[in-house]
Design goal:
Elements: H1 14-25, E1 30-34, E2 37-41, H2 46-61, E3 69-73, E4 76-78, E5 86-87, E6 91-95, E7 102-104, E8 107-108, E9 113-119, H3 124-137, E10 142-147, E11 152-160, E12 163-170, E13 175-177, E14 187-189, H4 190-197
Parallel strand pairs: 4-8, 9-10
Antiparallel strand pairs: 1-2, 3-6, 4-5, 6-9, 7-8, 10-11, 11-12, 13-14
Helix pairs in contact: 2-4
């Protein structure tokens, strides 16, 4: 991975303190800070959880939760875009020694992330826009989006400033093979994943 290590100034953390207060007051919410803005997502619906489970299986079957890598849900990724910025992808593939890359606030340096994946909820525009630039700016090699609203699977690779150089959109009926950079061959059945996730809830 070519991402530079995240630097942490040792001053007050007012946004993180507020984000943690929001999580304490709203159990089940996912609270993130991107671009200096706090984003609070309501608890996911049942189909979201089902889609996430369906997605986990091919990664585990490929052996990615083994000696060199781990497949994890809800692990924080520290973003270099701001002094308190972080995101919490639904699913991540990280280097097995990711704990050596701990930053703070249950977040880890992006250098140890091989893939991040989001299953959209009612705030789907965050996954399709805001997080594209955030993850690309962190040099995360692969970003996968299960777009439940539009019934599509997005695979973004080749991170660059402001976005990804390669953005492929896949429809039901396609079988998608993810990049070899993950360390194993992973194929995703688009129809199966979208069916598990059900339709996008109304915003």
């Amino acid at each position: 991975m070519s991402a530079a290590s995240v630097e942490r100034p040792h001053d007050d953390r007012p946004l993180i303190a507020e984000a943690n207060r929001l999580m304490d007051r709203n159990p089940g919410y996912r609270v993130e800070i991107i671009g200096g803005q706090i984003l609070a997502s309501p608890p996911p619906d049942d189909p979201h959880a089902e889609a996430l489970t369906s997605l986990t299986v091919p990664f585990l079957t490929a052996g990615l939760h083994a000696s060199g890598t781990r497949v994890l849900q809800g692990i924080g990724l520290w973003l270099p875009s701001g002094t308190e910025d972080y995101a919490i992808p639904d699913l991540s593939v990280v280097d097995a020694d990711y704990r050596d890359s701990y930053v703070e606030n249950n977040c880890y340096d992006p250098i140890c992330f091989r893939l991040v994946l989001e299953v959209t909820s009612s705030n789907y525009q965050s996954d399709l826009r805001t997080k594209v630039s955030a993850y690309a700016g962190s040099d995360v090699p692969v970003y996968v989006i299960v777009d439940r609203k539009h019934q599509r699977l997005h695979v973004l690779t080749d991170p660059a400033e402001g976005g990804y150089g390669n953005h492929r959109i896949h429809a039901p009926g396609e079988i998608v093979t993810l990049p070899d950079s993950l360390g194993a061959k992973v194929t995703l059945d688009v129809a199966e994943i979208l069916a598990a996730g059900g339709p996008e809830p109304a915003s």
